[in-house]
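Interim report, section 4.2 (structural modelling).
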Amino acid sequence: MSALFDLTGRCAAVTGAGRGLGRAVALGLAGAGADLVLLGRPGSQTSTEKEIRDLGRDVEVVEVDMADHEAVQRVGAEVAARREVEVLVNNAGIIDREDSVDVEAEAWQRVIDVNLTGLFLLSQRFGAAMLERGHGKVVNIASLLTFQGGIRVASYAASKHGVAGVTKALANEWASRGVQVNAIAPGYMVTDNTTALREDPERSQAILERIPAGRWGSAEDIAGAAVFLSSRASDYVNGHVLVVDGGWMAR
Ligand code: NAP
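Predicted structure of the assembly:
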């Protein structure tokens, strides 16, 4: 059975792997045997690079700002041309917390640029190579705000609803050609993304009380789902958004 989840000899690319969920996903994939390409901003992934090397896996760091669409397309095409990347995890993401009436166009656009447009453009570049080979996996990091509106996070909710749309659209086009496109929707996880919520005693308590599992998630909680969606075990899973939320959505 473990062979189904074995990633030995496979190359996986993860965006934003220097910290938080991206780091945990990259280490999880490395633990399952994958070699890694870490895509992110200069200097931000050095410690994860070392941790993966310590696991005995091959690891390469590639600099790219996911808000820079020209760079995303150029770097994506360049890496996809010289490496057989079989798994792409689109993890990099930002959040802007403010009242909707105060959101300026620039701030709105930045969230859409990183969370949605960058994700789509990188999927295009790696996806084209996967389609040529006839196999590959794209795993997008969505959110509970793929399903819900959230509070004071309109641009983020819009971007994450969009991630589900892109996931399903690409899955529809690529499933018959051997490429599975799916997403993970993490619940409330302890990372820098949720610092503001955890520092607000009332929000923090209200969130905790709604989670059936009775705790916030850790970054490591999504590693198993990432390995599943990156491995042969998910070969007949297409266009799915897998919720990993301690039961939040079941409530
Ligand atoms: P985080 O700790 O803030 O990490 C965000 C990651 O994205 C960092 O590695 C960051 O790199 C990278 N990133 C941001 N902007 C970038 C850019 N322009 N170019 C390249 N990389 C960029 O947050 P996280 O919780 O791990 O978030 C990871 C993903 O999970 C995001 O898509 C987020 O929306 C999603 N998510 C998180 C939660 C949660 O509860 N934490 C829940 C649902 C979904 P730098 O170090 O260079 O800034």
